[in-house]
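Thread: "does anyone have the structure for this chain?"

Original post by V.I.:
We have the sequence but no experimental structure in hand. Need at least a predicted one for the grant figures.
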Amino acid sequence: MSRVARARGRRTAASALDGTLWAPLAWLPTGWGEHVLLQVGRDGRWERIDVGVHAPPADAQRLDGPVLPGLVDAHSHAFQRAFAGLAERRAERAGHDDFWSWRERMYAVAARIEPDALRAIASQLDVELLKGGYTHVCEFHYLQRQADGQPYADDPLALAWALADAAAETRIGLTVLPVLYERAGFDGAPLAPRQRRFALDADGTWAACGRIAAAKRSHVHAGVAIHSLRAAAPDSVERLARHAEGYGGPIHVHVAEQMREVEECVAALGARPVEWLASRPGVALDGRWQLVHATHVTGAEVDAVAAARAGVVLCATTEANLGDGLTDLRAWLDAGEGGVALSIGSDSHVSRSWTEELRLLEYGQRLAHRARNVAAGGAGASELQAPAGRIWQRALAGGAGAAFGPGARWGLVAGARADLLVADSREPALLGVPPDRTLDALVFSTPSAPWRDVMVAGRWVVRDGAHEEEDAIAARFEAAMRALQAP
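Reply from O.Q.:
Generated one for you, tokens below.
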């Protein structure tokens, strides 16, 4: 019997909530708790969570392995999943390969993707994200128009709905972030032909957000995004910020990913990108703002972001793949009172696993500082002060803000959406590991298998490592990839 068939046999009906669960070990806001009873409410949220329940009720479903909350993937370009693994050779006759040469090859892929192909790609990606431990994804959505730059005649949001349809099929949570994208660079040059699919002004961005929110699709949320300060004029950034006054949803922006971007921003605007955002009165950074990458920043910029209570989205595997550089992780963790809100994104999807993102975040710092346990908090040995636990706990809270806005509840707490991951206790990385070192082993002892079971909003979406629809989804993805690569 195949894994998919076993998963179908084990899972409850998609319309039914699994009401009472019991876990031998579960990650709570205070760290690992033992003998944990979790009650799912009719609304798909945690109704109550009790620790130390040694004798669970007879009707409780016993979970076979350590349990963690699902994580929000706070930064995604779904269409780039079709490019993963295909940009790892230097372009012909190129003596140097970097972010900017990678971008030109990415444009060629973007030019060929239509709504049906995007749905096929996004569905495959969503299954992989679920298996990688993400139960919600924030789509930084700038693939807006037809290849000739014209809106889709039937519906200008055809590509956004393709993403929502993929999320509905796979049952992952989704936040769609339509992107303000209006120029080719800081010099104000118009979009190049290869960028014309991305065109959207501030009014169009706000209108798209409103339409997505008004559709009220299950577990689909909306926010707005600004591609970057090079792709949006200052007046347009401020216009979008005015539209969003009083709006509680998230606002995302790529910022300071490349040193060339920083240098051009200083020349054009008289300030570094994060410095400009933090000091511009018409922008007014606050807890809704999510600064994606923020790789090349100064200590003063870190302090300004902390004072504004804005968040930062780190995408370690993509930043490494593109040669972006390393941010100052310790500065973000230690800034202000309690540090800056951090979240994790898979971005270009060269990896679809949060354990790999956390591992590379810490390892990058170790290489830069030539030291171990760089992200640790003080000298304490608890799981909350260890690098894995400290980044993970911060990413849980930060991811909620990135997906839904400030104050959103997330994790294994009453009122949060009932998302969870079940690790396989027979996984070699966990064999013989004490309970309080489980997260350390999941992050730093590899290779590790995909999550055994994954729940979103009280419903199982992955069982025994398999998604019920994965075979059909994979077939459509392969067909879409063949079409994209055809001459």
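V.I.: this helps a lot. Confidence is low (pLDDT under 50) at residues 11-15.
O.Q.: and The longest helix spans residues 387-404.
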